[in-house]
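Page 37, top half.
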Amino acid sequence: MNDNRKNTREPKKLYEDKIISIGKVTKVTQGGRNFRFSATVAVGDRKGRVGIGTGKSKEIPVAVSKAIKEAEKNIVHVNLVDNRTISHEVTGVCGAAKVLIRPAKAGRGIIAGGASRIVLELAGVKDVVAKSLGSNTQINTAKATIQALENQRTIEHVAQLRGKTVEEVLN
């Protein structure tokens, strides 16, 4: 029973991906209408790393694959407290979209909608409350969520900025 087939295993994916939005763009020319697609995708490992990217092409699958490649280049690290929530309340802004993210008690779950929920899930946050303020554009909401997660400060980082020890900052 010797198989002469080649080993066709796919390489193991480093990140999980989810599509945030797919847009159809029409360019009207003298020769007719030209359609293109833009895709926004979030990628993450559910362990504190997440990124978003956009891709454009004449076909949806190509646009999605371009977006995944860009998202993998734009990975940010999120500091999680007890591997489940964020350290403090934070706000992120992108354009007219504003996202407020608050830590939550254990077991509360992700209370967020749309693009914020996707980004937070892929980042590995399990207990958090997020509120979208201002514009509800999905791309800008996702970018604002990423910015808010980037602006997190750990107690060690705050102590280092102030030139003190962690115990001095806590007291």
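Page 37, bottom half:
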Amino acid sequence: MFSGIVERTAELVAIRTDRQNKDFIFRADFTSELKIDQSIAHNGVCLTVVEIEGNTYTVTAMKETLDKSNLGLLKVGDLVNLERSMKPDALLDGHIVQGHVDQTACCTAKEDADGSWYFTFEYEPRGGGLCTVEKGSVAVNGVSLTVCDSTPTSFRVAIIPYTFEHTNFCRIEVGSVVNLEFDIVGKYIARLMQQYIK
């Protein structure tokens, strides 16, 4: 489990293709602290460390993950948001994030808010509780954020300078594709309503 509080970004230094899988090799300043089989969220996608060499480590994404997230669009040199899994005694500074991306969204607007920024994202509605609510939580590329201006197909988030500078929001522009994980509590409530309220 994760909290949506990004620890740092890592640079993608190489990609290997193995049939329908892709191995991503990242350079991170905490590589010496990692171990094989450790779970790390990459742009909000929970992936397992499979290899460590020097200051780089490797994770593997299968076709399902590549199809449902923006990882398949990554290029060497891209920055990815990283968060190691929470410890049981950790403070939940963001919200409950599973590392299971629901779908992608496209940035349709980026507005300067005199020191901060507003980003608007649009996504294809798919039902099953995959929606946002005003002042609710959503994870965008693994970053826990508060929703504003929620509609059935879009939402806006406010990004403060610290988040802009310490995540890959600094590289998101209009047209960029991001990963979304909707609030798990909202997804369960919506599913229950679909099953029992007719």
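Margin note: The helical segments are 63-68, 161-166, 184-196.
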